[in-house]
Write a structure and sequence with these properties.
The protein has 422 residues and is of the alpha/beta class. Helix 6 links the parallel strand 10 and strand 11. The protein is elongated, with a radius of gyration of 21 Å. Bound molecules: uridine-diphosphate-N-acetylglucosamine (UD1). Uridine-diphosphate-N-acetylglucosamine binds next to helix 1, helix 5 and helix 6.
Length: 422
Amino acid sequence: MDSIVVRGNGPLKGQIPIAGAKNACLTLMPATILSEEPLTLTNAPRLSDIKTMTTLLQSLGAEVTSLQDGKVQAMSSHNLDNHVADYDIVRKMRASNLVLGPMLARLGHAVVSLPGGCAIGARPMDLHIYGLEKLGAEIELKDGYLHAKAPGGLKGAEMELAFASVGATENILMAATLAKGTTVIRNAAREPEIVDLADCLRAMGAQIEGDGTSEIVVQGVDRLHGATHQVVTDRIELGTFMLAPAFCGGEVELLGGRMDLVQSFAEKLDLAGIDVTETKAGLKVARRSDRVKAVDVTTEPFPGFPTDLQAQFMALMCIAEGTSVLEEKIFENRFMHAPELIRMGASIEVHGGTATVHGVEQLKGARVMATDLRASVSLILAGMAAEGETVVSRVYHLDRGYERIEDKLGAVGAHIERVKDQ
Ligand code: UD1
């Protein structure tokens, strides 16, 4: 297993290209199941999670070819010959559950293992099941697998999600495109990845309105056809790299960055003393003075502050002037980075879903270990501003969500390298 070694250093300068969104790609890929014709995704990120989804789709009988060094995913599901999403693949990644809705819609039945994924809370699937049952599916849990069937086909229905779950909205939306009649999803998630999925499904012939708002209306069609779709920019990679100059000073341009993807995050950065400006090629970020200011943050569904940027922001607050309060409202148990940051000299108190961070002047390098994707990258950012050397082990979490992170940060002047563990 590899580790990443980071040495604290001064101002950064240069440009970082932002990849296509992991989370968008992970829901766009299963959309191939909905059609017999090919679906091609451009601007796909080169990540291990994308490889896991490739393996899963191939296990179902889909053809998936990675082209242009993984940036293009060419897929075809003309010959699906297996309807069981096996535990050994699904446990590696929660997003595997996104094959459930499409399989049910296309084949009328599906067996999908309950997922694993990041260890950041219980993450049940009750909302997915609620929505698919509203569409007429019968679902039972046996031996750790969800057994779903819709013998008479799926039928459009009106429903209201108890929480605006991203994955449940995606699964229900995909299933509804081939259901008979009209489906209305109330309290739907509004994340940009949902809009990207709806754009792709429309290119495949689906009739969808209201994506990006909390009420999505789908008019079912008999079949979907092939399409080519460009994956939206990764707003979490964007937000993560926007923080690099906040830690180290200097000025970095994020190529392909869009303000509408990170509005609430950029507002918090502004309060902390970081300028974010739009350029022709993306977003430019610069720290206004030597030390950032403490800012309180509460995570919320989009367009609120994203939970996937909470760990990285907490790392920044560790060296801010003053005390900040961070509230995690999306996942329980998503402060596992706090004890590791404390090992680097941070002052953090965690009580349930609230973390109070007392900023210190300087963090100190240490050997640290992360237990999930965003926690890992928060430790790298912290190491970039710490005195001495930080070694982040278990970087396979990082490779799930950041392509070539050492190259991208190294290109703007960060002292970062990947080393093979002995
Ligand atoms: C997606 C993202 C993840 C992000 C999260 C919230 C992907 C592949 N992953 O995850 O990076 O952190 O959105 O923005 O897109 N819940 C239920 N019942 C359900 C489903 C969810 O109670 O049936 C709860 C979860 O336990 C969690 C909350 O709802 O507390 C949010 O989950 P959800 O929006 O579904 O996140 P994911 O789609 O899993």
